[in-house]
Write a structure and sequence with these properties.
It is a single chain. The protein is α/β, with parallel strands linked by helices. It has a domain of about 250 residues: Rossmann fold, CATH 3.40.50. Helices cover about 45% and strands about 15% of the residues. The chain has 22 helices and 16 strands. The strands form 4 sheets. A 6-stranded mixed sheet has the order 4-5-15-10-11-14, sandwiched between helices. A hairpin with a 2-residue loop joins strand 4 and strand 5. Helix 3 crosses helix 11, helix 4 packs antiparallel against helix 6 and helix 17 packs across helix 18.
Length: about 500
Amino acid sequence: MDIIYQSTRNAAEKATASEAILKGLASDGGLFVPTAIPTFTTTLAELAKMNYQQVAYEVMKLFLTDFTEEELKNCIARAYDDKFDTAEIAPLKEADGAHYLELFHGATIAFKDMALSILPHLLTTAARKNNVQDEIVILTATSGDTGKAALAGFADVPGTRIIVFYPKDGVSPIQEKQMVTQRGANTTVIGIHGNFDDAQSGVKAMFNNKELAATMQAKGFRFSSANSINIGRLVPQIVYYVYAYTRLLADGTLKDGEKLNVVVPTGNFGNILAAYYAKCAGLPLGKLICASNDNKVLYDFFQSGVYDKNREFILTTSPSMDILISSNLERLIYKIAGEDAEKNAELMNALNTKGVYEITPEMRERLADFAGGYATTEQTAEVIQNLYKKTGYIIDTHTAVAASVYEAYKKQSGDDTKTVIASTASPYKFTRSVMTAIDAKYDSMGDFELVDELSRLSGVKVPQAIEDIRSAEVLHKTVCDKTEMQATVEKILGIA
């Protein structure tokens, strides 16, 4: 079955998988979604005997139907190679009754590597398939992790440039150092005076600017996105939920068809949406537990059916989740609205103009797959300390949000279904927050002293991604106001 994609805001705007990957965002500002979610053609028992690359092909071929077998297998082979520090790609670790799916073994030690290792290959293959001659400009906003993973993926890829905007005071020191030291003649990193939502809104505005698009086309450029709004980001994320389930099936933890709950620390909603798509495709998942930090806009939405971004923006120790506009939620809203693009567009317009929308009781009933929870900064630190004292296993702040929410969910629901927690970043990315959670005495140490102490405590070797930035030169020093983003892009591209 050929899968076609359409805009969540206009049923008439359709695209093949490769066209949707190239465009990133639909021309009306909507997101591309499959007109039908395919179901798995390989049994779970068969998948349990396959390695990560083989599972990736079996899953992705169902969604990316205009890629040939050779094209897709080539993209997978080039993505999931020795850039990852383990042949498993995404290993599972059991600790205190939960299975942590470690999604941070790639080049930039965050889960974004899982999709951004393959996106450049999907994108350049899509460009060839569609006879695109323009230089592709990857324009991305990041709350910390997407930026570095995208930069690493696209650095010096022929026919592309990448421009990343990040909130200057809204990422961890390690995250910022990773980005501003990025090499590559085609890479640009810009800090903005504003938060992630400001950066994301500025990027979306440029995508939707028809005049800018015409100017760029005349100069031989076209925008595409590396954010999770790009379907080429979302499809590879479905893979690791399938992989995790089938590993637990292979080792006897699960019986074939047994339900598995998933807890996902959530900001932009792409990671948990991938789990939902996996469930729709036939993976036996139970509850999809959406874990928020102090910026609990998603928790409040699942509790009330009202999405309201009109609230204080809180900087937390889990900065990649410091988000009030969860872009990928739109794909779920479209689904529970009965795939009614007009209704979805109306809700998204309300969010854009008033900062709030409310879904109908019928739509709320269709959210039964999901549960929501949130953890405060204090609860996050407490979980890191308790898990370390109990098991010696050290998790990062985002994973700790999920672990805290999982604990609360179990107590409130009595649900003892086996559970996977998506571990989205290495603790080495957030050393200060992690180490001071374990013991306040560590706050007096320097960033790289903390790195070495974390290695000593955890028994885990310092990742190469951290070693690489110890003495790396800062190459990107541009900072602009949130109102100057387009002018900055025009200057970089020489089209001002």
